[in-house]
Amino acid sequence: MEDLTIAPPVDDQAAFGLGEMLGRRQTFGMISGRCSAADAECLRRMRDQKLYRSRATSWNGFCPKFLGMTSRHANRIIRNLEEFGPGYFELAQLTRITPEQFRAIAPAVRDRSIQTHGGAIALIPENAEKIASAVADLRRDAAVRAGKKDDRIDAVDRRCEQVVAEIQRIADGKPAGADKLLLRATIRKAIVSLRMADLAMGV
């Protein structure tokens, strides 16, 4: 079992800095996957500078108790920051792109925008639909360059990006009552259906 024993503060200034980080609203956003580059940098500082020692004796014990995630998840976020930089997190907040998908289109993401044949699209919530479409186009282009192309899969991929973006916009509006229950039921139904399709393909 992981050691969750609270350690005495190792440094008053470090303890204060850690408290400020934990108090940031964005830190809690990491639990739902909406992690910003600033949040990822906070995680890296907590781990690398061992700021967590003012609250717990180990990084493994600190993460689930104070961050609501495993140390493995936290380390993965830090690796994404180190490999991709802030661009990945800016795009992931708008499209839920995976690290593997981002890796294929990384050269097109720079200066807080995504570069397409039609120009640059700023990475802001108002452009979420355009960004989803641009990501789908870039991924298709990457697949073509890799010698893989299936028009049906490409069409489904584009629609999925758009549906996920729309669901996220609705969820961000914090629906209540019957609307919340309906949205949650819709999401769970989709998850079950997609999981069945995934299993049907086999290994």
Compile the SSE list and pairings:
Blueprint: H1 12-23, H2 25-29, H3 37-48, H4 59-67, H5 71-84, H6 86-95, H7 99-105, E1 109-110, E2 113-116, E3 119-122, H8 128-145, H9 151-172, H10 177-200
Helix pairs in contact: 3-5, 8-9
Keywords summarizing the entry:
203 residues, mainly alpha, 3 strands
Number of strands: 3
- Beta-strand level of the residues, as a percent range? under 5%
Radius of gyration: 20 Å
What structural class results from the helix and strand content? mainly alpha
Spatial shape: globular
Largest sheet entry: 3 strands, antiparallel
Summarize the structure.
This protein has helices at residues 12-23, 25-29, 37-48, 59-67, 71-84, 86-95, 99-105, 128-145, 151-172, 177-200, and strands spanning 109-110, 113-116, 119-122. With 203 residues, it is mainly alpha-helical.
How is this structure best described in words?
It is a single chain. With 203 residues, the protein is mainly α. The protein has 3 domains: 12-82, no CATH class; 93-172, no CATH class; 176-203. Helix content is 66%, strand content 5%. The chain is built from 10 helices and 3 strands, in the order H-H-H-H-H-H-H-E-E-E-H-H-H. Strands 1-2-3 form a 3-stranded antiparallel beta sheet, covered by helices on one side. A hairpin with a 2-residue loop joins strand 1 (109-110) and strand 2 (113-116). The two termini are 33 Å apart.
